[in-house]
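Appendix B. Worked example

We walk through a single record from start to finish. Start with the input: the chain for Transport permease protein, Sphaerisporangium album, length 279.
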Amino acid sequence: MTTASPAAREVAPRGGPDRLRWALSDAWVITHRDLSHWARRPAQLVVGLLFPVMMVLMFAFLFGGGMVIPGGGDYREFLMPGMFAMTMVFGIETTFTAVSTDATRGVTDRFRSLPMASSAVVAGRSAADMLNSVAGLAVMIACGLAIGWRWHEGPGAALAAVGLLLLLRFALLWIGIYLGLAIKSPEAVMAVQILVWPLGFLSNTFASPATMPGWLGAVAEWNPLSATVAATRQLFGNPGWGGDSWAAQHAPLMALAWPLLILVIFFPLSVRRYRRLSR
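Next comes the structure step. The output line below is what the pipeline stores for this chain.
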């Protein structure tokens, strides 16, 4: 990849609309690059899509027989909203690995030396990861329908639930981008997994916070993942744990507030970190 001269940079459009089109075009180039990598390595993509499916089958058919839902209800309908949200959380690892690999190999610095919009690299990465998340969520929904899960509150509520799931993923991917730029070591994915898995399991996904010790139950109820899980269960019309806490009673509001708060914190941190990378 060649390095652009300062003179070449001067041909970039400076006007508002032209600059926006330039930035969107550059972001799409990065997105297309990431998508082409998946096309060349389909096995990696397939494994990433099927791993959550294996977890669904394990919990639904191995552990499901021993699960009792308060107030009754089908365990598989209880399970699927939690698994949808878990899939969104596990995407942090994918984002972190891709960003840190490019930063470590100098690919990110090469992009920054080109006459392209400074936002294109992170914007293109986020767009590619969101497309991957949409595909993963579609696979999970198909899996849920195959094992008997259904939504009961109409298509509008179901689409709202899907929107909350993708909002959570969009917010969390900026954590992955920031960590990938800050750590710049693909080997540190194990450390990210240590953070991600407790976030996923220390929630209301598989167990009621009411059954946990008081302080641990409070942490689980205020977990951003718990808010999205509880809200999507309501929107899908699936059974849930309920709860008397403020967080449990206002799950849809919290499912909006938590991702927005994460975005407010990690989006500017990611942009600042990207701008501070060595040229």
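Two observations about the output. Residues 1-13 have pLDDT under 50 and may be disordered. The chain has one domain: 17-275.
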